[in-house]
């Protein structure tokens, strides 16, 4: 795994807190996923789960111009997502179980 040491590591620039730098890899993975969808402005995306990864996916999908619907069992997560206004929250699906 020498390639990881040679090409897979970068130094965190001065002034970037570690708490922010740790999001580079998951954000990059989410970005690749959203780009692979080739979303258009007239498309709708449902992001199930509004934890950290779900919020990143929803934010990136919204930036692509798509309409974003979000779903999560926990109202607290919808509240966090609402702070950055990601999309339309759906909590009552399947008889209130999802």
Description of the molecule:
With 98 residues, the chain is α/β, with parallel strands linked by helices. Helices cover 46% and strands 13% of the residues. The chain contains five helices and three strands. The protein has a three-stranded parallel beta sheet, covered by helices on one side. Helix 3 crosses helix 4. The protein is globular. 20% of the residues are buried.
How many DSSP H or I helices? Answer: 5
- Total strands: 3
* Major sheet attributes: 3 strands, parallel
**Secondary-structure element string:** HHHEHEHE
Gap from first CA to last CA: 42 Å
Strand neighbour order, sheet with most strands: 1-2-3
Residue fraction in strands: 5-15%
Helix content, binned percent: 40-55%
Decide which structural class fits the backbone: alpha/beta
Low-confidence stretches: none
Q: What is the general shape?
A: globular
Averaged pLDDT, please?
83
Outline:
By secondary structure, the chain is of the alpha/beta class. It has helices at 2-7, 18-21, 24-37, 52-63, 75-83, and strands at 44-48, 67-71, 88-90.
